[in-house]
Amino acid sequence: MLVAVLVGLWVFVLAWIVRAYRVLFFDAPLTTAVFVRACERYARAGEVCGERALTEAGGAAWLARVYGAALESRSDPSAGGGGAEELAVDLRDSGERLIRPLRGLASLAAALGMLSAILSLNGVGVPKGGLLALQAGLVQKLSLEQALSCFALGGATSGVALASVTALRRQLARLRNDLDLLLTVVDGAVAHEGRSER
User: Fold this and answer.
1) CA-CA distance, 105 to 19, in Å (whole number)?
2) Pairwise pLDDT comparison (131 vs 72), residue with the higher score
3) Which of 9, 24, 25, 2 has its CA nearest to residue 156?
């Protein structure tokens, strides 16, 4: 019973990690230097069609979405100019929302592993009656095995979750830097567009 709870937590943590990795490592990133150079080139040339094609080719990547929001706000100034900045903040927050629960799950796994080990050593969840009681030390051996299993599962779950938090935070920091770089390009494109209209 106690081991089953820890296995369930292990599966949940792994599913959450896979989801976070998918979003932050596969859906969100683009090759920043190439994308930003292309954005700058299209913005300087005033090729709105090229800019739109670039954002459509980027799909769900964060840079493409933010640049698409910047294009929308440039083409429709009445909608408000903060679309790109607001979307960038929302994307950063969504990345944090993916990572933050993993720290709590890591703490929960470690605590649950310890608690389950203590309960197992006290004989909770280990059958004591029947033929098991006839063999000397068998009940204690079973409770010790269950305690070690619970402790190992809790520690492993906690370790994997914390290692993932570290890797995900690094990736989120890279994505934030990429978004900041893109926002400076967007600001430069807006300033260049303003100078060319005068």
Assistant:
1) 15
2) 72
3) 9
Residue that the structure tokens 């990795």 belong to? 21
Number of domains present in the structure of the chain: 1
Residue type, 172: L
Q: 98-113 pLDDT, tens per residue?
A: 999 999 999 999 999 9
Q: Name the region of 30 (left: φ>0; alpha: ψ -120 to 50; beta: rest).
A: beta
Domain, as residue range, for 29? 2-197
Which tokens go with 163? 């290692």
What share of the chain has pLDDT > 90, as a percent? 46
- For the stretch 158-198, pLDDT in tens is 999 999 999 999 999 999 999 999 888 887 766 655 555 54
Contacts of range 38-46, beta carbons closer than 8 Å, 24 or more positions apart: 39/67, 39/182, 39/185, 39/186, 39/189, 40/185, 40/188, 40/189, 43/185, 43/188, 43/189, 43/192, 43/193, 44/189, 44/192, 46/193, 46/196
Burial group, residue 182, by CB count within 10 angstroms (0-12, 13-18, 19+): buried
The CA distances from residue 162 to 44, 103, 151, 158, in Å, are 44, 7, 16, 6
Mean predicted confidence (pLDDT) in 15-36: 90
